[in-house]
Write a structure and sequence with these properties.
3-stranded antiparallel β-sheet, MerR-type_HTH_dom, mainly alpha, Multidrug-efflux Transporter Regulator, Chain: A, Domain 2, transcription regulation, MerR_fam, DNA-binding transcription factor activity, transcription, 3 strands
């Protein structure tokens, strides 16, 4: 799948109510995960907007929480994964690697 085909996944156009319906999470739970810096919606006129990628992320968070993983550990894991992606991107750019 190319970036162009995948780009819809990252557009922040979904309201919190729809995200709640899609995930089965309450709006309060979704806002809590935002407070814990696990999810980062855009805001337009005070209204939160989410992407399909955010919905997937929320489902992963919910599954980990059901397994008893604390939000602190989830955030640490997400930070580690982000660092690894950034390092890989920097290395690819340095060595001019294009997948």
């Amino acid at each position: 799948m190319t970036n162009k085909e995948d780009s819809y996944k990252f557009k922040k156009v979904i309201s919190i109510g729809i995200v709640s319906e899609l995930t089965g999470l309450s709006q309060r739970q979704i806002r809590y995960y935002e407070e814990r810096k696990l999810i980062f919606p855009d805001r337009s006129n005070g209204i939160r907007k989410y992407s399909f990628a955010d919905v997937e992320q929320l489902m992963e968070i919910a599954n980990k929480r059901e397994e008893g993983v604390p939000t602190r550990e989830i955030r640490q894991e997400m930070t580690k994964e982000l660092r690894e992606k950034m390092l890989k991107g920097q290395m690819n750019a340095h060595f001019r690697f294009r997948p």
